[in-house]
Design brief:
The chain is an alpha+beta fold and 70 residues long. Helix content is 30%, strand content 21%. The chain is built from two helices and four strands, in the order H-E-E-E-E-H. It has helices at 2-11, 49-59, and strands spanning 15-16, 21-22, 30-35, 41-45. Strands 1, 2, 3 and 4 form a four-stranded antiparallel sheet that branches.
């Protein structure tokens, strides 16, 4: 739960670097970058790595490794 965890970050003196967003614009996969009181940046996600990749590839299929040119 990104919103609940962000509230804990803020209560401990951290902050969100921008409002909570949806991964690749899809509902149900939320994220936010945070900063702790010492300035360290970290990301909160409420989805698994596999689901995040699936959502991103659904809107950006060229991001799949088999489509990389190099």
């Amino acid at each position: 739960d990104v919103a609940a965890t962000l509230a804990k970050v803020e209560a401990a003196g951290g902050r969100a670097r921008f409002p909570i967003g949806n991964v690749a614009g899809k509902e149900g996969a939320h994220f936010v970058y945070c900063e702790d009181p010492d300035g360290n940046v970290f990301e909160l996600l409420d989805t698994t790595h596999a689901e995040t990749v699936k959502v991103i590839l659904s809107v950006a299929p060229d991001a799949a490794p088999e489509n990389w040119k190099g």
